[in-house]
Design brief:
- This protein is mainly beta and 92 residues long.
- The protein has one domain (2-7, 14-90): Ferrous iron transport protein A (FeoA) (SH3 type barrels).
- The protein contains 2 helices and 7 strands.
- A hairpin with a 6-residue loop joins β4 and β5.
């Protein structure tokens, strides 16, 4: 399991960390941590899902899965099961 995170000294973690799966359309957040198997983490990083990058939630397919996320100039659709393992924090 490859676990990458982005921590700044002034960043305080709350008891409840949010995930991409909890984002609503139009919401923006900063990617904090990928908690996925190595191959999936690498693939997402190749598409711009890097800790510290801003992620914007886009539209969902009927039923809510998959959901489109905008990152680093690209739009990527992720299944809810994958999005549940990508932790985020609020953007400033």
């Amino acid at each position: 399991m490859l676990q990458l995170s982005f921590n700044k000294m002034h960043h305080r973690r709350t008891s409840h960390s949010r995930t991409l799966a909890e984002m609503h359309e139009g919401e923006e957040a900063i990617l904090d941590q990928l908690d996925l198997p190595d191959d999936m983490s690498r693939r997402l990083m190749e598409m711009g899902f890097l800790p510290g990058h801003v992620i914007a939630a886009g539209r969902c397919a009927p039923g809510g899965c998959p959901q489109v996320f905008r990152v680093d100039g690209s739009e990527v659709a992720l299944r809810k099961e994958t999005a549940k393992h990508v932790k985020i924090r609020h953007s400033k």
